[in-house]
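Weekly modeling sync, notes
Attendees: S.R. (lead), two postdocs, one rotation student

Agenda item 3: backlog of single-chain predictions. S.R. asked that every request posted to the team notebook include the full sequence so nobody has to chase files. The rotation student volunteered to paste the first one in as an example of the format we agreed on. Action items at the bottom.

Example entry:
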Amino acid sequence: MPETHPARRPPGELEASVLAALWAAGGPLTPADVQRDLGRALARTTVTTILARLHDKGAVARTRSGRGYAYTPTQDSPGLAARRMRTELDKEEDRETVLARFVSQLSPDDEQLLRALLDDAEAGTDADAGTDAGTDAEPGTAAEAGTREGGGSR
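Predicted structure, as returned to the notebook:
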């Protein structure tokens, strides 16, 4: 009789589950805490490996907790998605073509949103340059978010 294997998880599913547990916790978690919160039959070594990989990617920070570490996410879900998008873009030599294809595949609503965010970011840049444009921008604009979310290199 042929041996059956459980279906493989989609790539990134475990990382996403671990990050979701960390976001929901609102504070640092040890691998044992994450394992318990996931409620899955995952070995603690598997959870520890996932957390170490997330740390290597900069997605989580860690602090000493006894003989091991406790982990906290470095960004919220939208910030992490933006970071992944930036990482993928940085891998490509022909950034213009990649960005052009990305924009051409946006829905009309997303395209309009992107235009508004770019306008807000430009207004924020004008304010930084000493002009009057954008000086009364509200906190949380795209320009401020770009600074907050690590628009520069880390």
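Discussion: group reviewed the output briefly. The longest helix spans residues 108-128.
Action items: rotation student to repeat for the remaining queue; S.R. to check formatting next week.
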